[in-house]
Each structure stands twice: as structure tokens, then as C-alpha cells.
Design brief:
- InterPro entries: PAS-like_dom_sf (IPR035965), PAS_fold_3 (IPR013655).
- Pfam families: PAS_3 (PF08447).
- Residues 54-118 form the PAS fold-3 domain.
- This is PAS fold-3 domain-containing protein.
- The chain is α+β, with helices and mostly antiparallel strands.
- The chain folds into two domains: 6-126, PAS domain (Beta-Lactamase, 2-Layer Sandwich), CATH 3.30.450; 132-162.
- The protein is built from eight helices and five strands.
- It has helices at residues 6-14, 33-39, 43-48, 52-56, 61-77, 123-126, 132-147, 150-162, and strands at 18-23, 28-31, 81-89, 93-105, 111-120.
- Strands 2-1-5-4-3 form a five-stranded antiparallel sheet.
- A hairpin with a 4-residue loop joins strand 1 (18-23) and strand 2.
- Helix 7 (132-147) packs antiparallel against helix 8.
- It is elongated and about 60 Å long.
- The two termini are 26 Å apart.
Length: 166
């Protein structure tokens, strides 16, 4: 799993991380504009809510049963759900995504709402996620500078230039 930091959070949002909530009792799945675009569904329809089956049908046939089983496990166990799968987008064709979610329970322990995110992970979108090596080098450079370690700071500056992050 990626470390969650400000730089990574900004990258996720700029890469089209989509958010959703699914009301289990009503079988109404709600999503933001980014999710509507990802699933090639009109944004007003997504905002009004639709049955989960409408989205499951857009998952590739090869991934569908695995994803459905994983969602069921998350609902019954309360554990975090994480799956990578492919969506059949009407205009763009196959789109690889990563989804993370969790089913919340009420006071009686009954599952009632499932929240999560879905993010496209195709190569062009994944390329906008910052390289963790650059982030670590910048942090180490800042620390070396604060401690007055000029030699380490020089090496770290050179490393950032080599990886193209200077």
C-alpha cells in the first residue's frame, strides 16, 4: 500500500480518484462525477443513485465473480476491501482500476453503508503519481540541510538530478 501523504493525496485527486457510497438496504449506489466518468454513466444518474448491478455489469466478465465475492466478504466481515479489476468503458474500452472500500455497521452490527474509492491505474494515469524515491530524497535532503551535513546534502541533490526530480 502507498504511504498516505499530502503529495500522494494531491496526486490521487488530480488523477481522478472517484468516491462512492452504497446504501445496502435501498441498493442505491451513489458516486461523484469522477466515478460517473470512469464507468461511463451520466453524472446525474450516478448522483441520484442506481442499483449496484448496474456497475457490476460494467466490470469485465473475467473479473466480475472475483470482485463480487470480495465485496460480499467485505460486507459480511467488515474488513477492508481492495481489488484491482477492469471496467468495460463504452468509449475508451477496457480501463484498469483499483478499488478500496469498507462496509460500515450500525449499533446492532448490521452492515448498512459501503464507502470507498476507485481510481484508474492505467499507465498514463499512474504516471501522475509521484515517485516515492524522489519524495524520500527530498525529505532526506531537507534533514541533511537542517543538520548541517553539507556532503550528504550534495549527494542527495545530485541524486535528485539523476532521477530527474531536481
Amino acid at each position: 500500500m502507498f504511504p498516505l501523504n499530502t503529495e500522494l493525496s494531491a496526486a490521487f485527486l488530480s488523477c481522478g480518484m472517484a468516491f462512492f457510497s452504497w446504501d445496502l438496504a435501498e441498493d442505491r449506489f451513489y458516486g461523484d462525477v469522477a466515478l460517473a466518468q470512469l464507468f461511463d454513466i451520466d453524472a446525474s444518474v450516478m448522483a441520484a443513485g442506481l442499483p449496484i448491478l448496474s456497475l457490476i455489469e460494467r466490470i469485465s466478465v473475467e473479473d466480475r465473480s472475483r470482485v463480487a465475492a470480495s465485496i460480499h466478504r467485505a460486507i459480511t466481515s467488515g474488513l477492508v476491501y481492495q481489488e484491482q479489476y477492469r471496467i468495460n468503458h463504452g468509449k475508451r474500452g477496457a480501463v484498469d482500476v483499483l478499488s478500496v472500500g469498507r462496509c460500515l455497521r450500525d449499533d446492532a452490527g448490521t452492515p448498512f453503508i459501503y464507502n470507498g474509492t476507485i481510481m484508474e491505474i492505467s499507465s498514463n494515469v499512474a504516471s501522475c503519481i509521484p515517485d516515492p524515491l524522489a519524495s524520500h530524497c527530498r525529505s532526506a535532503l531537507e534533514l541533511a540541510q537542517k543538520r548541517g551535513n553539507d556532503l550528504a546534502a550534495r549527494y542527495l541533490s545530485s541524486a535528485l538530478k539523476v532521477i530527474g526530480a531536481a
